[in-house]
Write a structure and sequence with these properties.
CATH architecture of the largest domain: Alpha-Beta Barrel
Organism: Sphingobium ummariense RL-3
Distance between the termini: 42 Å
Number of domains: 2
GO biological process, one term: proteolysis
Structural class: alpha/beta
CATH class of the largest domain: Alpha Beta
Pfam families: Peptidase_M19
Keywords: Signal
InterPro entries: Metal_Hydrolase, Pept_M19
Radius of gyration: 20 Å
CATH topology of the largest domain: TIM Barrel
């Protein structure tokens, strides 16, 4: 069957992706679809923005809302409490802790405000029940453990809030682990710090899945050696396709799979392939982002003005060499070739920089299902990729808690 399907895939993926057959759309809507890394909680705190309303990615640059989730057949996923890396100081920890708790509250408030459409999920088994009720599934995760400061027991507070997946580092080294992209380009600990190892023990005790995305390869080595439950890469890619520090090589892919882990494929363009430099655009965007950071509490009027500036940057300095849906699928198909459909999933980094030409927001998600079927994967395989694998890892963390 798989060989037959491969033989029918005569068109390049980019052409296939233009039209999703009705039968594939029906199948996609039937599957339980989860994305393991949604940065959409950042949108929840934008002035005048509502998850209940449909938005346009080309106007306000957001990628996930309830109408688009329904249209694109996204049942839900892991909604991230992301905290930018700041100073590794008592004051830095305090500010990060307060920020992270408030971001978690925003996720819980989203659910509480619309119980007809959203429901908090706390266990792997919850996903099927929530999807069957026609609601969106809201698992919670932490991207960057920096807000925990030097008190790993604070993780229990986030667990009680609903967090079931947690990473260690982000763009820079922190108190727990080395980052894959620290500006120094030099390791600090050579993997997990002693405090990071204590944090891992606490994750295993509570039943929280360890996430190695953004951390260095040596951190992944430590996690695979020390974790009592499987490890997840919530949004990563393949180094064999594009040699970037955020991606992992085939040896690590195989080691991850051997311990029951899963790589969830990223759609963050800078990690998919090299692009032609566009210095004028980069300079303009850097200035815009700096202004956004300065205006942390934007008024609706200020946000409208910033969006207009962003649109003007796009007009003056268009990004003409953006990675495409083909580039995204190249990473996914490579991972599937190396470790098979039991160890690959989807974590596109929506609202956190993800999105490519041909897959701009979650409305385009059926294209992934179509491409996987065209590549010869069965309906059962596709269901594993969309949610079965990540739920299996979550169930393993639940089963291993306290041991």
């Amino acid at each position: 069957m798989r060989k037959l399907l491969v033989l029918t895939a005569l068109l390049p993926l980019s052409v296939q992706a233009q039209e999703v057959p009705k039968a594939v759309m029906q199948l996609h809507q039937k599957l339980i679809t989860l994305d393991s890394h949604l940065d959409t909680p950042a949108s929840l705190d934008l002035p005048g923005w509502s998850i209940e309303e449909g938005h346009d990615v080309h106007s306000d640059y957001t990628q996930v809302d309830l109408p688009r989730m329904k249209k694109g057949g996204l049942d839900g996923g892991f909604w991230a409490i992301y905290t930018p890396q700041g100073p590794v100081t008592i004051e830095g920890f305090r500010k990060a802790r307060d920020f992270a708790i408030l971001r978690g509250v925003s996720i819980r408030e989203m659910v509480a405000a619309d119980p007809a459409n959203f429901q908090l999920a706390l266990e792997a088994k919850d996903a099927a029940r929530i999807a069957a009720a026609g609601k969106r599934i809201v698992y919670m995760s932490i991207e960057n453990a920096y807000p925990l400061g030097e008190d790993v027991t604070l993780l229990k507070t986030f667990y009680d809030m609903g967090v079931r997946v947690s990473g260690f580092a982000h763009f820079a080294h922190n108190q727990f682990a080395d980052s894959s992209t620290d500006p120094s380009k030099k390791p600090r600990y050579g993997g997990l710090s002693p405090l990071g190892k204590e944090l891992l023990k606490e994750m295993n005790r509570l039943g929280i899945v360890p996430d190695a995305s953004h951390s260095s390869d040596q951190v992944l080595d430590d996690l695979l050696a020390l974790s009592t439950t499987p490890v997840l890469l919530t949004h990563s890619g393949c180094k064999a396709v594009y040699d970037h520090p955020r991606n992992i090589d085939d040896e690590h892919l195989k080691a991850l799979a051997a311990k029951g882990g899963v790589i969830q494929m990223n759609a963050y363009g800078a990690y998919l392939r090299a692009s032609k430099p566009n210095p004028e655009r980069q300079k303009a965007l850097a200035g815009l982002y700096a202004q956004m950071r300065e205006d942390a509490k934007l008024s609706p009027e200020a946000r409208t003005a910033l969006l207009a500036k962003r649109q003007e940057i796009d007009r003056l300095y268009p990004d003409t060499d953006r990675p495409t849906f083909d580039d995204f699928m190249a990473h996914m198909l490579h991972a599937l070739k190396v470790v098979g459909p039991d160890h690959v999933g989807i974590g596109a980094d929506w609202d956190g920089g993800g999105g490519v030409v041909g897959m701009e927001d979650v409305v385009d998600l059926p294209k992934i299902t179509a491409a996987l079927l065209k590549a010869g994967y069965s309906e059962a395989d596709v269901q594993k990729i969309w949610s079965g694998n990540v739920l299996r890892v979550l169930a393993a963390a639940e089963a291993g808690k306290g041991k």
